[in-house]
Amino acid sequence: MRSAAIILLGLLAGIPASVSAQSGVLDRARKAGVMTIGFIEDGAPFSFAGADRQAQGFAVDLCREVAVGVRAQLKLEKLDVRWVPLTVGNRLDAVRTGKVDLECSTTTWTLSRQETVDFSLITFLDGGSILSRKGSELVRLSDADGKRIAVIGGTTTERALREALAGRSLRSELVPVSSRTDGLKLLEDGKVDGFASDRTTLIGIVATGSTGLGFRLMDEDFSVEQYALSLPRGDYEFRLAVNRVLARIYRSGEIVKIYNRWLGGLGPPSLLLSATYFVQSLGE
Q: Which residue has the higher pLDDT, 11 or 153?
């Protein structure tokens, strides 16, 4: 019996990885004709719920293209997309547990996060900054000494901000919040001096908000944030399918149309972002 078990284990170990990968996202999509994609409801202009509560934004458009590309790669006549609203706090866990097949928002690709989920090619570059009310003295990071700064707990922004403050021996009180909406509300009510998040997202929430207050962004960034689409760890067939679509979008220049649709009002892509897309325009 022991010998038989050893032989069985040996046979299983010899099965090519591509066979086990068939139980992944692509296989489920092929059988069910559905992909489940997560988005953040308050991450404008990258990922948010519109007036009709439907998912939209820069990252959402990329994911729509991924779904179209996956359908073509699988040679399916139809592939439905089921959109699942997530929060910044549960988005990675939703990918890890299989609640969603793909997550589209402002998730920064880090090595520690890659221990539990995988990532696509980089989709955007941003930097951490601090939003304050108009007239505030919070112009540079050094001005944050003694200030109360709201930040979403458990994010790369929180970690980067803590490190930046410690590196300059600044004594700021970080006030944890669960969403960008909560952070902006504390700032509007004067309960904090600033709200820290990614620069482009801060511009987005102010632009789409209904408040009549004036705001300003700090003149410097305290981090670099490399956004990517998060997907199940170890599902290399699906990751390849996703990256095939993104590389085609970058290679064809279609990324410029998507950028202009959601971010064109902020000016053209930076040289660094343009270079990122160029380097990732991988050929077949």
A: 153
